[in-house]
């Protein structure tokens, strides 16, 4: 059995969706995505459903995580995001990984980008 999707409540469906498509390779799973709801899909068939809500509240430790192969790849994503003006704490080593976290624009949920420590 595989995990099929996660459903996230976001303030701005279009902004959060555009961010995930631009930086993490997601595509529109359906043609009728709109400002109220969007279903995105990655190259492996995993879906992220974005649903508009006024005030999503996630537990303090909640996040979605993206796994990369190398520290250089993690650093490249960090550089790309900070070069676009995002204020993100630099990657650090911890729990056997090289990782950083930030809040998704338009989404109010945390994203982790990580790889196993080398």
What is the CATH superfamily classification?
2,3-Dihydroxybiphenyl 1,2-Dioxygenase, domain 1
Residue stretches low in confidence (pLDDT < 50, at least 5 long) are none
What are the secondary-structure elements, in order, as H or E?
EHEEEEHEEE
What is the helix tally? 2
Write down the overall mean pLDDT: 94
Structure in a nutshell:
This protein is 21% helix and 35% strand.
Describe the structure.
This protein is 21% helix and 35% strand. The strands form two sheets. A four-stranded mixed beta sheet has the order 1-4-3-2, covered by helices on one side. It has a four-stranded mixed beta sheet with strand order 5-8-7-6, covered by helices on one side. It has a single domain, classed as 2,3-Dihydroxybiphenyl 1,2-Dioxygenase, domain 1 (Roll). With 118 residues, the protein is of the alpha/beta class. The chain contains two helices and eight strands; from the N terminus they run E-H-E-E-E-E-H-E-E-E. It is globular, with a radius of gyration of 14 Å. The mean pLDDT is 94. Strand 2 and strand 3 (37-41) form a beta hairpin. It has helices spanning 13-24, 71-83; strands spanning 5-10, 27-28, 37-41, 47-52, 63-67, 92-94, 97-103, 110-116.
